[in-house]
Design brief:
Chain lengths: 439, 147
């Protein structure tokens, strides 16, 4: 029964996101699968904002007060904008034998992840020490308060725990086995978005091929449904990937609606984990450059969304007395030994094939040897290298942080983008040029 | 890009795909043994399997303390603290990892309950009301203040 409630909550979040995307044409109609992929993240973000604002304004969390406003909004929007919901797209094209083979692989992987997630209760350290502990505390207390934040020593943003609290509210109690389905949902919607993004420019066979490569990364499977389900790294990876794909679309369309959606997702990205802040920085720089290049200064206004959300969270942490927790626990420390161990530890993770398959080896090989690289892919490389650089700098300069315990998790944030680059770059290589020259 | 580099890319991609297929195959055949290992257990047994004595200790603490108890907690393993904190909420854990500080807090007699995990200390002014069974791999004791 609880599994059904979690599933319904996930569907509700997706429906909410999807209706808003369609009603306001935030994405083109042809981008149906990608819109569905985005809808879950948008819905989760909006439900988080609702939970957070209710708590800030002293409104109690009840099923009625949480669901009814959305039902009302959904009803009105659907009624007014009903024309926006007409679409026709062939979802089930004729498949070749190889495509069917790939689909079977994807299907079996999905079944395995679902089977695994329902098999065990929450077992990952960060899950019961931070993310789902916060969700449990908020649910029991019925609010976010300075007292409970201080007790939990909560210094991370609250998007993931508050969505879990929302689901607990729907259930009426805490069930830390069923709640892990949220991780599986992020895994599924990330895969769908990945497939849709590849298919947009590379065709069906190649997209299925790429999606299978992504879904079978053992580290992703672990976070989606196995031992490490229940922590916020996969959601962070999902939001980073969606933002990056929206950015790529923005480069070609320069639509202000798309930039609005991108900024909204950027705002949510910063509220999943602290690692979202450097991502916001690099994306803002890239966005500003594009705006400046095309003189679309009216778009600048949308950047207030992620900045506003981040500032509100920083302010709330300050008034709750939890703003110093992280910096006290991880004070400044720099030594040559730390730099060396951080680099070697990170390198070891790159070549851990059982976790990452050949993803990082291929990524760095293509980065070094594949030329020329298209401009849009150069930007994506910039995002990955900047993010990775920030993680390394934190390892170099702070006490108690090192790659041994966290790099397998942190690489989840950028792995889908890295795979997207690999597949796009391989597709861009002119395989037979030299041969033709010889002939 | 020269042909040699292209050959390497093809080899890497084939290996990537091959390993990916192996993962699908390996995961699929793992379903039955994993079900036999986990699927037959009750929820409580699964948690005991994951957390070991720490979960048993939680169950004991939960039954032997008041509904809104504040428990002074000492352990040399951070994991035990986080596990007990997670499971016991809304009961609250006040964790001190430094032995001197802990003994000072005990001497202040501010706390009704004191729990010690993975160590056995004798505390003045407190009576032992629960210990983990002999079969447990770790020591665990709950004290209550003498009225």
């Amino acid at each position: 029964m609880n599994e059904l409630i979690v599933f319904t909550s996930i569907m509700f979040a997706s429906l909410l996101g999807y209706v808003l995307i369609r009603a306001y044409n935030l994405l083109p109609k042809e981008d149906l699968l990608f819109s569905i992929g985005c809808s879950f993240g948008l819905g989760v973000g909006l439900l988080f904002l609702q939970m957070y604002s209710y708590s800030r304004f002293g409104i109690a969390w009840h099923i009625q007060t949480l669901i009814l406003p959305w039902l009302l909004i959904l009803g009105i929007v659907t009624l007014i904008k009903r024309k926006s919901f007409h679409f026709s797209l062939s979802l089930f094209p004729q498949l070749t034998y190889f495509e069917k083979f790939l689909c079977v692989g994807i299907f079996l992987t999905c079944c395995y992840v679902l089977f695994e997630v329902l098999l065990r209760p929450l077992g990952v350290w960060d899950g019961w020490a931070t993310w789902l502990f916060e969700a449990k505390v908020f649910f029991i207390d019925g609010k976010i308060s300075a007292t409970n934040l201080q007790y939990m020593q909560a210094s991370y943003p609250l998007l993931y725990p508050l969505f879990a609290t929302f689901v607990y509210e729907m259930m009426g109690h805490v069930d830390d086995t069923a709640i892990l389905l949220i991780s599986t949902a992020f895994y599924g919607f990330l895969s769908l978005s990945f497939f849709a993004s590849l298919r947009r420019s590379h065709g069906l066979t190649y997209s299925l091929f790429g999606t299978l490569l992504l879904m079978t990364l053992q580290n992703l499977i672990r976070h989606g449904g196995r031992i490490e389900a229940g922590i916020a790294d996969l959601p962070q990876g999902y939001y980073f990937f969606i933002c990056t794909m929206l950015y790529l679309r923005y480069l070609t369309t320069t639509s202000h609606r798309l930039f609005f959606l991108l900024c909204t997702f950027l705002g949510f990205s910063t509220l999943v984990k602290n690692e979202g802040t450097p991502f916001l920085l690099i994306m803002t720089i890239l966005g500003l450059y594009h705006i400046y290049k095309h003189k679309m200064y009216s778009h600048l206004l949308y950047l207030l969304i992620p900045c506003g959300l981040l500032l509100e969270w920083v302010y709330f942490k300050k008034i709750s007395g939890v703003d110093q927790i992280y910096s006290v626990a991880h004070h400044f420390e720099l030594s040559l030994g730390k730099v060396v161990s951080s680099i070697t530890g990170t390198f070891k993770e790159f070549v851990t094939i059982k976790s990452w398959n050949f993803l990082w080896i291929m990524y760095f090989y293509l980065l070094v040897f594949s030329r020329p690289i298209k401009e849009k892919l150069v930007n994506l490389h910039g995002i990955i290298l900047f993010q990775l650089g920030c993680y390394l700098v934190v390892y170099f300069t702070t006490f108690g942080n090192g790659p041994e315990s966290s790099i397998p998790r942190l690489l989840i944030h950028i792995a889908p983008i890295a795979l997207f680059i690999i597949l796009s770059q391989i597709k861009d290589i002119s395989w037979f040029t030299e041969k033709k020259k010889v002939v | 890009m020269n042909s040699f580099r292209k050959i390497i890319i093809i080899c890497l991609l084939i290996s990537f795909f091959g390993f990916s297929l192996f993962t699908v195959f390996y995961n699929t055949i793992k379903i039955i043994p994993e079900f036999n290992e986990w699927g037959v257990l009750t929820d409580k047994q699964k948690r005991e399997k994951i957390f070991g004595d720490q979960y048993t200790f939680y169950q004991q603490l939960n039954t032997r303390t008041d509904a809104n108890a504040h428990i002074l907690f000492y352990t040399d393993t951070g994991m035990a603290y986080y596990v007990e904190r997670y499971y016991l909420y809304p009961k609250k854990i006040i964790y001190l990892s430094d032995k001197k500080e802990f003994l000072k807090a005990v001497a202040s007699r501010k706390y009704t309950y004191v729990a010690i995990y993975n160590e056995d200390l004798t505390l003045d002014g407190y009576k032992k009301i629960m210990t983990l069974p002999q079969s447990a791999m770790h020591k665990g004791v709950l004290y209550k203040i003498n009225e």
